[in-house]
Q: What sequence folds into this?
């Protein structure tokens, strides 16, 4: 890997950290007036359709091999459909701060565990140490505020739903990596976005209260702007970049964004919403940044099973698997 590609990967990682550090606010604003299934389903359906349409316009392959379709549908439902609707309903009953605690602390750990179980990676002392430092940093930053509140039954349910959503997301992320032997990362991102979004949209219209009213799109400008932000930087750009990093770095290493994104959320809160930053918050941010730096520092020997890049296919060509 040359220095140019390494710099590009790091730039993508920084972009993901910033965008995904601000999505909790956009989601919270949106689901205040829009049914969660429609709010997420429309976003992911449109994102997937745009990605695949762009590939088709460039003459690149869009459809997956028939043999992969059942696996692709299964992964899409876990990665997009279940993750999104479960987390959004959980977010209705807890604060964005508590949701950030759960997501930030659990995401890297779950990614690593699933990757090890799948045989894609192996535990290293440095990696375990980075996760430990990061979790301590998250708890230092958000823990006191979360502990100070009294959780009622609905808050416990909300926290549990966010946890289940994170588990779905991390399991799906790990399951996508072997598929990159056949599918290009951008192609896979478009397919999972479209399939997961359509399943979520159809399911919402069938069973979710208020879904048909939400389809009239009378959301108000705050919800619409939040949705647009989640669509373009959050889905079209960040998700595609994330798949590229999963291919090149493995599943757990890109997941360290979860140690950095909360820091960005705190800085934005202090800058634009008048939130106070005390010494405990500062220590927590330093610990999380240190954990991410430790985990992202190049190792002497790769601990990730490499994924061969599939040949670039255009319409009219086929691939035997």
A:
């Amino acid at each position: 890997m040359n220095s140019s590609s390494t710099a590009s990967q790091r730039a993508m990682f920084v972009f993901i950290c910033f965008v995904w550090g601000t999505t909790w606010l956009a989601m919270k604003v949106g689901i205040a007036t829009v049914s969660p299934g429609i709010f997420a389903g429309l976003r992911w359906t449109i994102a997937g359709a745009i990605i695949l349409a762009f590939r088709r316009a460039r003459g690149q392959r869009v459809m997956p091999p028939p043999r992969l379709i059942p696996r692709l549908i299964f992964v899409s439902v876990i990665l997009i459909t279940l993750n999104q609707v479960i987390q959004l309903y959980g977010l209705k009953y807890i604060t964005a701060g508590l949701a950030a605690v759960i997501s930030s602390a659990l995401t890297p750990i779950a990614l690593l565990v699933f990757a090890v179980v799948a045989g894609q990676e192996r535990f290293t002392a440095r990696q375990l140490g980075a996760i430990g430092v990061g979790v301590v940093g998250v708890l230092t930053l958000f823990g006191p505020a979360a502990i100070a509140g009294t959780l009622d039954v609905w808050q416990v349910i909300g926290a549990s739903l966010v946890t289940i959503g994170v588990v779905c997301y991390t399991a799906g992320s790990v399951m996508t990596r072997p598929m990159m032997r056949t599918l290009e990362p951008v192609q896979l991102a478009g397919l999972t976005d479209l399939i997961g979004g359509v399943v979520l949209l159809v399911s919402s219209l069938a069973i979710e209260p208020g879904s048909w009213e939400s389809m009239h799109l009378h959301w108000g400008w705050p919800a619409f702007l939040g949705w647009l932000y989640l669509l373009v930087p959050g889905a079209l750009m960040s998700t595609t970049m994330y798949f590229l990093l999963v291919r090149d770095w493995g599943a757990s290493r890109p997941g360290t964004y979860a140690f950095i994104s909360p820091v960005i959320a705190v800085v934005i809160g202090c800058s634009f919403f008048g939130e106070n930053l005390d010494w405990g918050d500062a220590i927590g941010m330093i610990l999380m940044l240190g954990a991410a730096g430790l985990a992202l520092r190049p190792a002497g020997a790769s601990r990730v099973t490499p994924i061969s890049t599939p040949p670039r296919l255009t319409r009219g060509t086929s691939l035997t698997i």
Notes: The two ends are 27 Å apart (CA to CA). Residues 311-321 have pLDDT under 50 and may be disordered. DSSP finds twelve helices and no strands in the chain.
